Prior knowledge:
It is a single chain. A hairpin with a 2-residue loop joins strand 7 and strand 8. This protein is 48% helix and 23% strand. The protein is α+β, with helices and mostly antiparallel strands. About 2% of the residues have low confidence.
Amino acid sequence: MIGGFVLSGIFRGAVQNSLDDRLVFDLDGLIAAAEVDAPEHVTLQDRFADPRFERVFSGWYWQIEPDGAQLPESQPQTSRSLWDQTLAPETLANGANNSVWGYAKGPDGQRLRVVERLIALPRTAEGREDTQTFRFIVASDLSETDADVGRFNQTLFWAFAAFSLGLLAAIAIQVRVGLRPLRRVSEALVRIREGRARKLEGQFPSEIAPLASELNSLIAHSAEVVGRARSHVANLAHFLKTPLTVLANEAASTPGPLAETVSRQVVSMRRQVDHYLARARAAGALDVLGSRTELAPVLNDLARVLKRMHAEKDLTIEVDVVPGLAFRGEREDLEEMAGNLIDNACKWAPHRIAVEAKPLDGGRFSLSVEDDGPGLTAEERSRAMQRGERFDESVPGTGLGLAIVRDIAKLYGGDITLGESTMGGLAARLELPRSQ
């Protein structure tokens, strides 16, 4: 747009200068052809014959008038094109060669460009030589100039419009082609994030290849660090649980107040160890890219194993999973969360358990576990979620299953809620990120 305005201004200036040069040329010709033939009157020789000044209202006009006229009958001499009109220049400004430039209103109301000059012409009066000053004026209609500028601006507009569209198309092509390797990197990262790949695959340009190599190195290093952390967590669990088992056995074999105290503290320590080791393992798993776990195999395996563990109840565990549904995380974390929920249901359900997994909007899915057991009141559900409280010591377990599920779900940006089941028992609903 700025370039268009600049070019339009340059063209207008060039056309204006060309018109001014033509006016000066005509003014010089008019002065050269003028001779004084009477007081305050001149006559033009044949050498100033221009048909533009002969056609009425042609847009080209001249006018000659004595400067400081003293005779009452003195009238300006005008070209035939002015007919019975005269010129009255206004907004004058001095120019080169003693010329004065300005504008005037034409016979048809058109706007005229005007140049005038005072010239002293020689004359013979009463047998002696003298001079008399006349004002020579030449004017031209600006409508033709404005029309030329308008045509140029129109051509300029369409030319710049076509140029702009071509430039935008070239930029779009350049961006689309030039940034295609970066889009491939972005798509590869999405595949890694969703668990469909473990590293950036494919050939990349020399400008992108170092980036892809560094990203692959970073992913491999992250997996290595998390693997070492998991090994340390497993070793720590082993080293802690062995002394706790020894203390529990010694306390059980030695009755008394001290033994009871030791047994209670050992149970509490086991609960805390299980709780925080599960959290630490899940937190480490979050740093690994490319984690993706199919739900159907995990839930079916858990249902089969837990049904055997509670074989004395002859439970029916129904698993309903949308085909292809996957968890964006580690298999061990999904097994930890789903296993705790199904195991709790198995402990309290007398006959039937329903496990359902379905996708939700926003890249998430829900995993619900319902049973036909006694269920919990609203107050008990709140206490169970807040403190991991046990409501029946006769049922085996640490009472931290729901708390562990809640903590791992929060690490993945998910959540767990408890409600009433349509089967009469407890309904646990878990929301987790879904892998595409």
